[in-house]
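Budget justification, computational time. The allocation requested in the original proposal was used primarily to generate C-alpha cells for proteins on the priority list. As evidence of use, we reproduce two of the resulting records. The first is shown immediately below.
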Amino acid sequence: MSPPPEMPPTGVGYAYRASAIGSAHRFALEDDGLSWRAGRRAGRWRYEDIVAVRMSYRPMSMQSHRFRTEISHRNGGRIIVMSTTWRTLALMDAQSNDYRTFIVELHRRLAEHGARAMLAGGLNPVLYIAGTGVLTMLSVAMTALLVRAIVTGEWAGALFIVGVSVLFGWQIGRFMHRNRPRAYTFDALPRDLLP
C-alpha cells in the first residue's frame, strides 16, 4: 500500500507535533476515508471501518486549554489527534480553530458514510469513578485538617488549607466536569470537549 499524501487537494487536513523533537502527525479527511501519517506509520481508514471516537479535555502545565480525540479502527488500530502542537522545546501552540474544524468535519463525514462508531466523551468510566473516589477521600482529609486548624486556633494554617483547596478544586473540578463519561451523537458534539 502506498503512503497517503500529505494533504489531498479535496480533503480537510490537520497536523500537529506530539513532541518537540518528533515528526508531525498529519491527517486528511478524503472523500472515502481518513488518511494519516505519524512518523513512520501511515494508513488510510475508510469511514465505515472507524469503530470508536472518544473526545476528552487534557490540560497540561504548558497549555491549559488542550483537547484530545482518540479514533479507533475495527482492526484494533488507534490514532490520537491533539489540539496543540509543540513549536520549540519550551513552547506549545494551541490550534483551536483548525482542530475544531477537523473534528467537526470528521463527525460529519462519519455520519454521511453511515459509520456505526461508538461516540464517547470524557474519561473511561472506570478511571473517572476511581478519580472521583480519590478526590472524595482527599476532600474528607482536607476538611478534617481545616476543622483541626480552626479548633486549635491555627488561623494561618486554616487560611492556607482554604487557599490550596480553592485552587485545587478550581483546577480539578474543571477537569472532572469536562471529562465526565457520556455518549453523544454525530449531530450533537459535546461543546465543552471542543476548543
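The second record produced under the same allocation is shown here.
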Amino acid sequence: MIDAALLPLQHRLLRPPAQALVARGISADQVTLAGFALGALALPALAFGAWGLALVLIVANRLADGLDGAVARLTGPTDRGAFLDIAFDFAFYALVPLGFALADPGANALPAALLIASFIGTGSSFLAFAAIAAKRGEVAPAYPSKGIAYLGGLTEGAETIALFLAMCLVPTAFPLLAGLFAAACTLTTVLRWWWGWRAFAPL
C-alpha cells in the first residue's frame, strides 16, 4: 500500500552503497543471490527460536533486495535480474511463517498455513496480472523502476516486512498477527481479481 510512496526515498538512500558495490565489481545478481541466502538462514534461526538473529537476517535480506535494484539501475537492468528478484521474494515470504511453524507447531502451524495460503493468493494474482499486462505492453506508472508490470495492493512489501519484524519482536503474537495479515492478504487478492477482471475485459 505504501511501496510506491517509499520508492523515491529508497532510491536516494541506496544509491551511495550501490555505487560502492559497482566500483568493486559486484553485480546486481550477486547481491540478489547473497540476499536470498541471508533470508533463507532466517528459517533455521526462527525454527530454533533465535528471534533476534532472525530479525537481523530478515533486515539484511530486505536491504539486499533494495540494493540489487539500485545496482541494476547503475549498470543496466536485465530480465534475469527481474526474474530472480521476484522469484526469490516470494520464496522468502513463505520461509518466514514456515520458520515460526517449526518453532512451535502446536500454536503456530495452522496460522502459518493460513498466512502462506494467503501469500499464494497475493503472489499468483500479482504475477498473473503482470504476465497479461506485459503481453499487452502495459506498465505501472507508480512503479517505473520495476522490471515487471507491478500491481499494488493493501498488502505489499513494506507491510509484509513490518509484519515479519513485529513477529520477531513479539513471537508469542504470531498466531494473531498471522491471522490478521492473512485476512488483509485475502482482501488484496480479491481486489486484484476485480482489477484484473475489469482491466482485461474484452473490448
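A brief technical remark on that second record: DSSP finds seven helices and no strands in the chain.
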